[in-house]
Protein backbone atom coordinates (compact mmCIF):
# COMPACT_ATOMS: atom_id res chain seq x y z
CA UNK A 1 0.00 0.00 0.00
CA UNK A 2 2.81 2.38 0.91
CA UNK A 3 4.82 1.68 -2.22
CA UNK A 4 1.72 2.29 -4.40
CA UNK A 5 1.23 5.64 -2.73
CA UNK A 6 4.79 6.62 -3.38
CA UNK A 7 4.53 5.55 -6.99
CA UNK A 8 1.57 7.79 -7.74
CA UNK A 9 2.05 10.73 -5.37
CA UNK A 10 4.16 13.83 -5.93
CA UNK A 11 5.77 15.66 -2.99
CA UNK A 12 4.73 13.06 -0.44
CA UNK A 13 6.54 12.68 2.86
CA UNK A 14 9.81 10.80 2.77
CA UNK A 15 11.12 8.49 5.46
CA UNK A 16 11.46 9.84 8.99
CA UNK A 17 15.30 9.53 9.19
CA UNK A 18 15.67 11.46 5.95
CA UNK A 19 13.07 14.04 7.04
CA UNK A 20 14.89 14.59 10.34
CA UNK A 21 18.21 15.00 8.52
CA UNK A 22 16.75 17.49 6.04
CA UNK A 23 15.16 19.46 8.88
CA UNK A 24 18.56 19.78 10.57
CA UNK A 25 20.17 20.99 7.34
CA UNK A 26 17.40 23.54 6.79
CA UNK A 27 17.85 24.96 10.30
CA UNK A 28 21.55 25.57 9.63
CA UNK A 29 20.88 27.06 6.21
CA UNK A 30 18.21 29.36 7.66
CA UNK A 31 20.71 30.82 10.11
CA UNK A 32 23.23 31.15 7.29
CA UNK A 33 20.60 32.84 5.14
CA UNK A 34 19.91 35.46 7.78
CA UNK A 35 23.66 36.15 8.03
CA UNK A 36 23.72 36.42 4.22
CA UNK A 37 20.93 39.01 4.33
CA UNK A 38 22.78 40.99 6.99
CA UNK A 39 26.02 40.89 4.96
CA UNK A 40 24.16 42.02 1.82
CA UNK A 41 22.48 44.96 3.55
CA UNK A 42 25.80 45.97 5.13
CA UNK A 43 27.57 45.87 1.75
CA UNK A 44 24.85 47.88 0.01
CA UNK A 45 24.75 50.44 2.81
CA UNK A 46 28.53 50.88 2.85
CA UNK A 47 28.84 50.99 -0.97
CA UNK A 48 26.22 53.76 -1.15
CA UNK A 49 27.51 55.78 1.78
CA UNK A 50 29.98 58.70 1.76
CA UNK A 51 32.63 56.12 2.67
CA UNK A 52 32.08 53.97 -0.44
CA UNK A 53 35.71 54.42 -1.51
CA UNK A 54 36.85 52.56 1.59
CA UNK A 55 34.56 49.64 0.68
CA UNK A 56 36.09 49.45 -2.80
CA UNK A 57 39.58 49.73 -1.34
CA UNK A 58 38.92 46.86 1.09
CA UNK A 59 37.48 44.63 -1.65
CA UNK A 60 40.47 45.34 -3.91
CA UNK A 61 43.22 44.65 -1.36
CA UNK A 62 45.54 42.03 -2.86
CA UNK A 63 47.04 39.25 -0.75
CA UNK A 64 48.54 35.82 -1.38
CA UNK A 65 51.59 34.36 -3.13
CA UNK A 66 52.36 35.04 -6.77
CA UNK A 67 52.73 31.29 -7.42
CA UNK A 68 49.82 29.67 -9.25
CA UNK A 69 48.27 33.12 -9.80
CA UNK A 70 47.20 33.31 -6.14
CA UNK A 71 48.01 36.99 -5.54
CA UNK A 72 44.33 37.92 -5.55
CA UNK A 73 42.02 40.62 -4.27
CA UNK A 74 39.88 39.90 -1.22
CA UNK A 75 36.83 39.91 -3.47
CA UNK A 76 38.39 37.27 -5.73
CA UNK A 77 39.48 35.19 -2.74
CA UNK A 78 35.86 35.22 -1.56
CA UNK A 79 34.53 34.17 -4.98
CA UNK A 80 37.19 31.60 -5.85
CA UNK A 81 38.21 30.38 -2.40
CA UNK A 82 35.31 30.65 0.03
CA UNK A 83 32.74 29.54 -2.54
CA UNK A 84 34.81 26.40 -3.12
CA UNK A 85 33.89 25.49 0.48
CA UNK A 86 30.23 26.10 -0.36
CA UNK A 87 30.43 23.87 -3.43
CA UNK A 88 32.26 21.18 -1.46
CA UNK A 89 29.19 20.99 0.78
CA UNK A 90 26.98 20.93 -2.33
CA UNK A 91 28.95 17.93 -3.61
CA UNK A 92 28.62 16.15 -0.26
CA UNK A 93 24.89 16.82 -0.06
CA UNK A 94 24.12 15.77 -3.61
CA UNK A 95 26.07 12.52 -3.28
CA UNK A 96 24.44 11.84 0.08
CA UNK A 97 20.97 12.32 -1.40
CA UNK A 98 21.49 9.99 -4.34
CA UNK A 99 23.50 7.29 -2.57
CA UNK A 100 21.80 6.97 0.81
CA UNK A 101 18.90 9.44 0.86
CA UNK A 102 15.32 9.14 -0.34
CA UNK A 103 16.45 10.20 -3.82
CA UNK A 104 18.25 6.92 -4.40
CA UNK A 105 14.82 5.89 -5.65
CA UNK A 106 14.80 7.10 -9.29
CA UNK A 107 11.06 7.80 -9.09
CA UNK A 108 11.56 10.25 -6.23
CA UNK A 109 14.72 11.73 -7.76
CA UNK A 110 13.11 12.48 -11.12
CA UNK A 111 10.90 15.33 -9.89
CA UNK A 112 13.51 17.66 -8.29
CA UNK A 113 15.99 16.92 -11.08
CA UNK A 114 13.52 17.77 -13.83
CA UNK A 115 12.25 20.80 -11.88
CA UNK A 116 15.85 22.04 -11.55
CA UNK A 117 16.44 21.50 -15.27
CA UNK A 118 13.28 23.42 -16.10
CA UNK A 119 14.30 26.10 -13.64
CA UNK A 120 17.50 26.60 -15.61
CA UNK A 121 16.33 26.20 -19.22
CA UNK A 122 13.38 28.60 -19.10
CA UNK A 123 15.18 31.51 -17.33
CA UNK A 124 18.05 31.20 -19.81
CA UNK A 125 15.58 31.35 -22.72
CA UNK A 126 13.83 34.36 -21.19
CA UNK A 127 17.16 36.17 -20.80
CA UNK A 128 18.15 35.36 -24.38
CA UNK A 129 14.76 36.56 -25.67
CA UNK A 130 15.17 39.91 -23.90
CA UNK A 131 18.78 40.38 -25.09
CA UNK A 132 18.62 38.73 -28.50
CA UNK A 133 19.12 42.02 -30.37
CA UNK A 134 21.21 43.80 -27.72
CA UNK A 135 24.57 42.76 -29.12
CA UNK A 136 28.00 43.65 -27.70
CA UNK A 137 28.32 40.35 -25.84
CA UNK A 138 25.11 40.72 -23.83
CA UNK A 139 24.17 37.09 -24.49
CA UNK A 140 27.23 36.00 -22.49
CA UNK A 141 25.09 36.48 -19.37
CA UNK A 142 22.48 33.87 -20.34
CA UNK A 143 23.27 31.69 -17.31
CA UNK A 144 22.99 34.43 -14.67
CA UNK A 145 19.27 33.95 -13.83
CA UNK A 146 19.47 30.14 -13.76
CA UNK A 147 20.59 29.65 -10.14
CA UNK A 148 18.51 29.37 -6.95
CA UNK A 149 20.02 30.53 -3.67
CA UNK A 150 18.71 28.14 -1.00
CA UNK A 151 20.14 30.13 1.93
CA UNK A 152 18.48 33.35 0.76
CA UNK A 153 15.21 31.50 0.09
CA UNK A 154 15.19 29.95 3.57
CA UNK A 155 15.96 33.32 5.10
CA UNK A 156 12.88 34.71 3.37
CA UNK A 157 10.86 31.82 4.78
CA UNK A 158 12.15 32.66 8.25
CA UNK A 159 11.27 36.34 7.85
CA UNK A 160 7.72 35.77 6.57
CA UNK A 161 7.29 33.11 9.28
CA UNK A 162 5.50 30.52 7.20
CA UNK A 163 5.09 26.92 8.28
CA UNK A 164 5.99 25.43 4.92
CA UNK A 165 5.56 21.62 5.02
CA UNK A 166 8.75 19.58 5.13
CA UNK A 167 7.96 17.95 1.75
CA UNK A 168 8.00 21.36 0.04
CA UNK A 169 11.14 22.44 1.92
CA UNK A 170 12.86 19.22 0.92
CA UNK A 171 11.77 19.76 -2.69
CA UNK A 172 13.18 23.30 -2.62
CA UNK A 173 16.45 22.18 -1.01
CA UNK A 174 16.98 19.29 -3.42
CA UNK A 175 16.23 21.21 -6.59
CA UNK A 176 18.51 24.02 -5.37
CA UNK A 177 21.36 21.54 -4.78
CA UNK A 178 20.87 20.01 -8.25
CA UNK A 179 20.61 23.56 -9.57
CA UNK A 180 24.01 24.38 -8.03
CA UNK A 181 25.57 21.29 -9.59
CA UNK A 182 24.23 22.25 -13.02
CA UNK A 183 25.45 25.81 -12.47
CA UNK A 184 29.01 24.73 -11.66
CA UNK A 185 28.92 22.49 -14.76
CA UNK A 186 27.91 25.52 -16.83
CA UNK A 187 30.76 27.52 -15.26
CA UNK A 188 33.28 24.80 -16.17
CA UNK A 189 32.01 24.38 -19.74
CA UNK A 190 31.10 27.91 -20.80
CA UNK A 191 33.05 30.30 -18.57
CA UNK A 192 36.57 28.88 -18.86
CA UNK A 193 38.35 31.39 -21.05
CA UNK A 194 41.93 30.10 -21.12
CA UNK A 195 42.45 26.45 -20.23
CA UNK A 196 45.95 25.49 -19.05
CA UNK A 197 46.29 21.72 -19.43
CA UNK A 198 49.48 21.37 -17.36
CA UNK A 199 48.11 22.55 -14.00
CA UNK A 200 44.87 20.64 -14.67
CA UNK A 201 46.78 17.38 -15.14
CA UNK A 202 48.85 18.08 -12.04
CA UNK A 203 45.65 18.65 -10.06
CA UNK A 204 44.77 15.00 -10.66
CA UNK A 205 47.63 13.92 -8.36
CA UNK A 206 46.51 15.56 -5.09
CA UNK A 207 42.89 14.85 -6.02
CA UNK A 208 43.67 11.14 -6.42
CA UNK A 209 45.55 11.11 -3.09
CA UNK A 210 42.60 12.87 -1.41
CA UNK A 211 40.22 10.30 -2.89
CA UNK A 212 42.33 7.37 -1.70
CA UNK A 213 42.62 8.90 1.78
CA UNK A 214 38.88 9.46 2.28
CA UNK A 215 38.05 6.05 0.82
CA UNK A 216 40.35 4.59 3.49
CA UNK A 217 38.43 6.53 6.15
CA UNK A 218 41.32 8.90 6.88
CA UNK A 219 39.80 12.05 8.36
CA UNK A 220 42.91 13.80 9.73
CA UNK A 221 42.73 17.45 8.74
CA UNK A 222 46.51 17.78 8.42
CA UNK A 223 46.41 15.23 5.59
CA UNK A 224 43.16 16.12 3.81
CA UNK A 225 43.27 19.92 3.97
CA UNK A 226 46.69 20.28 2.23
CA UNK A 227 45.60 17.83 -0.49
CA UNK A 228 42.29 19.68 -0.99
CA UNK A 229 43.96 23.11 -1.05
CA UNK A 230 46.60 21.92 -3.52
CA UNK A 231 43.89 20.49 -5.78
CA UNK A 232 41.97 23.76 -5.55
CA UNK A 233 45.08 25.87 -6.33
CA UNK A 234 46.02 23.81 -9.39
CA UNK A 235 42.47 23.86 -10.75
CA UNK A 236 42.45 27.63 -10.21
CA UNK A 237 45.74 27.93 -12.11
CA UNK A 238 44.32 25.85 -14.97
CA UNK A 239 41.76 28.53 -15.81
CA UNK A 240 38.76 26.46 -14.73
CA UNK A 241 36.87 28.22 -11.96
CA UNK A 242 38.12 26.84 -8.67
CA UNK A 243 34.62 26.10 -7.35
CA UNK A 244 34.62 23.09 -9.68
CA UNK A 245 37.35 21.59 -7.48
CA UNK A 246 35.05 21.94 -4.46
CA UNK A 247 32.30 19.87 -6.08
CA UNK A 248 34.72 17.17 -7.26
CA UNK A 249 36.30 16.87 -3.81
CA UNK A 250 32.82 16.54 -2.29
CA UNK A 251 31.96 13.77 -4.74
CA UNK A 252 35.11 11.87 -3.73
CA UNK A 253 34.01 11.46 -0.10
CA UNK A 254 32.27 8.12 0.63
CA UNK A 255 28.71 8.25 1.90
CA UNK A 256 28.16 4.73 3.24
CA UNK A 257 30.58 3.13 5.68
CA UNK A 258 32.57 0.29 4.14
CA UNK A 259 32.36 -3.24 5.53
CA UNK A 260 35.91 -2.86 6.82
CA UNK A 261 34.80 0.19 8.80
CA UNK A 262 31.81 -1.58 10.30
CA UNK A 263 29.25 -1.36 7.52
CA UNK A 264 26.23 0.94 7.11
CA UNK A 265 24.74 -0.05 10.46
CA UNK A 266 27.83 1.10 12.38
CA UNK A 267 27.07 4.80 12.01
CA UNK A 268 27.20 7.70 9.53
CA UNK A 269 29.66 7.72 6.66
CA UNK A 270 32.49 10.18 6.19
CA UNK A 271 30.38 12.46 3.98
CA UNK A 272 27.89 13.06 6.78
CA UNK A 273 30.76 13.59 9.24
CA UNK A 274 32.32 16.25 6.98
CA UNK A 275 28.95 17.84 6.30
CA UNK A 276 28.29 18.34 10.02
CA UNK A 277 31.67 20.01 10.44
CA UNK A 278 31.88 22.10 7.29
CA UNK A 279 28.30 23.21 6.62
CA UNK A 280 28.35 25.73 9.52
CA UNK A 281 31.56 27.20 8.07
CA UNK A 282 29.99 27.40 4.62
CA UNK A 283 26.62 28.81 5.70
CA UNK A 284 27.86 30.94 8.58
CA UNK A 285 31.08 32.36 7.11
CA UNK A 286 31.96 31.53 3.50
CA UNK A 287 28.69 32.53 1.80
CA UNK A 288 28.02 35.68 3.90
CA UNK A 289 31.59 36.94 3.31
CA UNK A 290 31.22 36.32 -0.42
CA UNK A 291 27.90 38.19 -0.35
CA UNK A 292 29.54 41.09 1.47
CA UNK A 293 32.17 41.52 -1.23
CA UNK A 294 29.90 40.71 -4.19
CA UNK A 295 26.74 42.68 -3.38
CA UNK A 296 28.28 46.08 -2.76
CA UNK A 297 27.02 47.91 -5.85
CA UNK A 298 26.81 51.71 -5.91
CA UNK A 299 23.26 52.35 -7.06
CA UNK A 300 23.42 56.14 -7.28
CA UNK A 301 19.99 56.86 -5.87
CA UNK A 302 16.64 56.30 -7.55
CA UNK A 303 17.84 57.69 -10.89
CA UNK A 304 20.80 55.32 -10.90
CA UNK A 305 18.60 52.39 -9.98
CA UNK A 306 16.15 53.15 -12.81
CA UNK A 307 19.01 53.62 -15.25
CA UNK A 308 20.54 50.26 -14.26
CA UNK A 309 17.22 48.45 -14.67
CA UNK A 310 16.73 50.01 -18.11
CA UNK A 311 19.73 48.02 -19.32
CA UNK A 312 18.44 44.94 -21.25
CA UNK A 313 20.95 42.81 -19.34
CA UNK A 314 19.39 43.76 -16.00
CA UNK A 315 15.89 43.39 -17.46
CA UNK A 316 16.78 39.95 -18.77
CA UNK A 317 18.04 38.90 -15.34
CA UNK A 318 14.95 40.20 -13.55
CA UNK A 319 12.63 38.57 -16.08
CA UNK A 320 14.55 35.31 -15.93
CA UNK A 321 14.47 35.14 -12.14
CA UNK A 322 10.88 36.26 -11.61
CA UNK A 323 9.13 34.79 -14.66
CA UNK A 324 11.52 32.18 -16.02
CA UNK A 325 12.17 30.41 -12.73
CA UNK A 326 8.49 30.24 -11.80
CA UNK A 327 7.43 28.97 -15.23
CA UNK A 328 10.32 26.52 -15.49
CA UNK A 329 10.01 24.88 -12.06
CA UNK A 330 6.21 24.86 -11.96
CA UNK A 331 5.83 23.90 -15.62
CA UNK A 332 8.21 20.95 -15.49
CA UNK A 333 6.65 19.74 -12.22
CA UNK A 334 3.21 19.88 -13.80
CA UNK A 335 4.46 18.03 -16.88
CA UNK A 336 5.88 15.26 -14.67
CA UNK A 337 2.45 14.88 -13.08
CA UNK A 338 0.68 14.99 -16.44
CA UNK A 339 2.82 12.42 -18.24
CA UNK A 340 3.25 10.03 -15.29
CA UNK A 341 -0.40 10.40 -14.24
CA UNK A 342 0.82 11.10 -10.70
CA UNK A 343 -1.29 12.95 -8.16
CA UNK A 344 -0.12 15.75 -5.91
CA UNK A 345 -0.05 14.84 -2.22
CA UNK A 346 -3.55 15.27 -0.76
CA UNK A 347 -2.32 17.84 1.81
CA UNK A 348 -0.95 20.14 -0.88
CA UNK A 349 -2.29 22.28 -3.71
CA UNK A 350 -0.75 23.35 -7.00
CA UNK A 351 -0.65 26.86 -5.54
CA UNK A 352 1.93 25.52 -3.07
CA UNK A 353 4.10 24.29 -5.94
CA UNK A 354 3.77 27.69 -7.63
CA UNK A 355 4.84 29.44 -4.41
CA UNK A 356 7.97 27.27 -4.16
CA UNK A 357 8.66 27.86 -7.87
CA UNK A 358 8.47 31.62 -7.35
CA UNK A 359 10.71 31.25 -4.30
CA UNK A 360 13.20 29.51 -6.59
CA UNK A 361 13.58 32.86 -8.37
CA UNK A 362 15.74 34.08 -5.52
CA UNK A 363 19.07 33.82 -7.28
CA UNK A 364 21.93 35.43 -5.43
CA UNK A 365 25.22 33.70 -4.62
CA UNK A 366 25.79 31.71 -7.82
CA UNK A 367 24.04 34.34 -9.99
CA UNK A 368 26.48 37.02 -8.79
CA UNK A 369 29.37 34.62 -9.37
CA UNK A 370 28.31 33.88 -12.96
CA UNK A 371 27.70 37.57 -13.59
CA UNK A 372 31.25 38.33 -12.48
CA UNK A 373 32.57 35.67 -14.88
CA UNK A 374 30.35 36.73 -17.79
CA UNK A 375 31.19 40.45 -17.85
CA UNK A 376 34.46 42.21 -17.10
CA UNK A 377 33.07 45.69 -17.78
CA UNK A 378 32.56 47.50 -14.45
CA UNK A 379 29.31 49.22 -15.50
CA UNK A 380 27.76 46.00 -16.73
CA UNK A 381 28.91 44.23 -13.59
CA UNK A 382 27.02 46.81 -11.52
CA UNK A 383 23.91 46.41 -13.68
CA UNK A 384 24.13 42.63 -13.20
CA UNK A 385 24.18 43.10 -9.43
CA UNK A 386 21.20 45.46 -9.56
CA UNK A 387 19.31 42.96 -11.75
CA UNK A 388 20.08 40.03 -9.43
CA UNK A 389 19.13 41.99 -6.32
CA UNK A 390 15.95 43.44 -7.85
CA UNK A 391 14.83 40.09 -9.27
CA UNK A 392 15.50 38.31 -5.99
CA UNK A 393 13.58 40.91 -4.00
CA UNK A 394 10.61 40.79 -6.37
CA UNK A 395 10.58 36.97 -6.25
CA UNK A 396 10.78 37.13 -2.45
CA UNK A 397 7.78 39.46 -2.17
CA UNK A 398 5.64 37.46 -4.60
CA UNK A 399 6.54 34.17 -2.89
CA UNK A 400 5.77 35.66 0.53
CA UNK A 401 2.31 36.73 -0.65
CA UNK A 402 1.55 33.25 -2.02
CA UNK A 403 2.93 31.48 1.04
CA UNK A 404 1.05 33.68 3.51
CA UNK A 405 -2.20 32.95 1.68
CA UNK A 406 -1.73 29.27 2.54
CA UNK A 407 -0.21 29.68 5.99
CA UNK A 408 -3.29 28.40 7.83
CA UNK A 409 -3.14 25.13 5.86
CA UNK A 410 0.60 24.91 6.52
CA UNK A 411 0.01 25.25 10.26
CA UNK A 412 -2.40 22.32 10.16
CA UNK A 413 0.07 20.16 8.23
CA UNK A 414 2.91 21.12 10.56
CA UNK A 415 0.86 20.21 13.64
CA UNK A 416 0.09 16.83 12.10
CA UNK A 417 3.77 16.25 11.24
CA UNK A 418 4.83 17.02 14.81
CA UNK A 419 2.19 14.92 16.66
CA UNK A 420 3.80 11.97 18.46
CA UNK A 421 1.06 10.29 20.51
CA UNK A 422 3.04 7.15 21.35
CA UNK A 423 6.13 9.09 22.43
CA UNK A 424 8.58 7.02 20.38
CA UNK A 425 10.30 10.09 18.93
CA UNK A 426 8.81 9.49 15.47
CA UNK A 427 5.76 11.59 14.48
CA UNK A 428 2.66 9.45 13.98
CA UNK A 429 2.34 10.29 10.27
CA UNK A 430 5.71 8.58 9.67
CA UNK A 431 4.96 5.43 11.69
CA UNK A 432 3.00 3.88 8.85
CA UNK A 433 5.87 4.43 6.38
CA UNK A 434 8.70 3.35 8.65
CA UNK A 435 10.00 -0.13 8.03
UniProtKB/TrEMBL annotation:
Na(+)/H(+) antiporter that extrudes sodium in exchange for external protons. One of its GO terms (molecular function) is sodium:proton antiporter activity. The gene is nhaA. One of its GO terms (cellular component) is plasma membrane. The chain crosses the membrane at residues 30-48, 68-90, 111-130, 142-160, 172-191, 197-214, 221-237, 243-260, 281-301, 313-337, 349-371, 383-403. This is Na(+)/H(+) antiporter NhaA. Gene3D superfamilies: Na+/H+ antiporter like domain. Keywords: Antiport, Cell membrane, Ion transport, Membrane, Sodium, Sodium transport, Transmembrane, Transmembrane helix, Transport. Belongs to the NhaA Na(+)/H(+) (TC 2.A.33) antiporter family. It catalyses: Na(+)(in) + 2 H(+)(out) = Na(+)(out) + 2 H(+)(in). It is found in: Cell inner membrane; Cell membrane. It holds the Pfam family Na_H_antiport_1. It is a multi-pass membrane protein. The keyword Chaperone does not apply. GO terms for biological process: regulation of pH.
Amino acid sequence: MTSARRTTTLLSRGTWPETARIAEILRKETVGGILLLVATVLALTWANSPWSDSYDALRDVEIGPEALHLHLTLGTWAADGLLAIFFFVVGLELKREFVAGDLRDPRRAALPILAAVGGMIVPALVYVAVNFTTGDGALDGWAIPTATDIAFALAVLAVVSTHLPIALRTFLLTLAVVDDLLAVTIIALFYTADLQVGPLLLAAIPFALFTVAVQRRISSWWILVPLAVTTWALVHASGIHATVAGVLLGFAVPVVRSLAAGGPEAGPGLAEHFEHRIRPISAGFAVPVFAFFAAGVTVGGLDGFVEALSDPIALGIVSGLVVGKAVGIFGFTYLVARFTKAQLDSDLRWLDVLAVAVLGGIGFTVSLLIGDLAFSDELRDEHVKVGVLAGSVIASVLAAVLLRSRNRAYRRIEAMEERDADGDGVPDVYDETTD
